[in-house]
Each structure stands twice: as structure tokens, then as C-alpha cells.
Amino acid sequence: MLPAPILSALETKSPEQVLAATLAHFGAQAGTVHLLAPAQAGAEPLLALKASSGIPPHIVAIVQTVPIGKGIAGLAAERREPITICNLQTDNSGQARPAARTTGMEGSIAVPMLTAGGELRGVLGIAKAAAYDWNEEETALLMAIGRALGEAAA
Do 147 and 114 touch, CB atoms closer than 8 A? Predict the structure, then answer.
């Protein structure tokens, strides 16, 4: 069951309001909502930024579009599974783009926004200012929020 403030935000169908409610629920300081952009003939699919909070302007400019498979959001979309990083500042897994460090955030998670039928609609990402390991319950709740956002974007 989704928390009441998140359910209320979902009723608005506003990615900005859902992101704000999600950040408040998890005590996170930054986040993004990317939606899958309509594919152009012969072009690779992209994620288009629809909402952001707590992201520095120079990073907002960089993440306006994200290729599937690139960076944390792109990997979550490609793999259709959560991508977590305990500390962006010290991570050397290659999952995050180098510019991600300039956000000042550490504990990061991105989850795919999938419909009930498994169709990708976008990616929800949130981050905390301190190192953080996202547990199974939190990840499952974020996946449920992503699913609800995905259905709303359908």
C-alpha cells in the first residue's frame, strides 16, 4: 500500500507532485522523473526529463535526455530493475556518469516505471545527501511508486 501523501500526489498525475511526495517520504534531497520519449525513426530510445528537485542547474541541463543504458537512470530503464549506489562520491562501478558526483548526493536509487504489463514508461530516481543502502522494503515501495507513475503516464 502506498503512503497517503504519495497516493494523493498520484491522483494529480503530476510528476512534480509525485516526486516531491516521494522525496519527503524517504527523506531524500534530490530526484528526477524521466519519461520514455517517443522513438524517432532510426534513433535510439531516450528518456526525457519531466521533473526534478534538488538537482543543480548544470546537471539538469545534462540530464534533459538520457540514452537507455547510460548512467543510473538509463541502466534502470535498460535492465528494467532498480539501480542503487550507496555513495555516488566514491562509487567506481561505472554505473553513474562522472557528472553525477557534482550533485553532491551520495545514496542513490533509480527504478524503472513499468506498467502492469511490463512496458517501460520511464525512470524515477531519488538520492540522499549521505551514503545510504536502500533496503528491500524501500526498493519495493519505490518500484510500486514507479509502477503507479508508469500507469499514470500510459
Answer: yes
Kindly state the average pLDDT of the residues 25-43: 88
Indicate the average pLDDT of the chain: 87
Ranges assigned E (strand) in 46-119:
46-53, 65-67, 83-85, 107-114
Give the span between the Cα atoms of 93 and 89, in whole angstroms: 11
* CB distance 146 to 114 below 8 Å: yes
Give pLDDT tens digits for 58-104: 889 989 999 999 889 999 999 999 998 765 555 566 566 655 655 66
Q: How many CB atoms are located within 10 Å of the residue 37 CB?
A: 16
Query: What is d(CA 57, CA 69) in angstroms, rounded to the nearest whole number?
Result: 23
The number of angstroms, rounded, from the C-alpha of 79 to the middle of its chain's C-alpha atoms is 13
Cα–Cα distance between 2 and 50 in angstroms, integer?
22
b (16+ CB within 10 A) / e for 20-33: bbbbebbebbbbbb
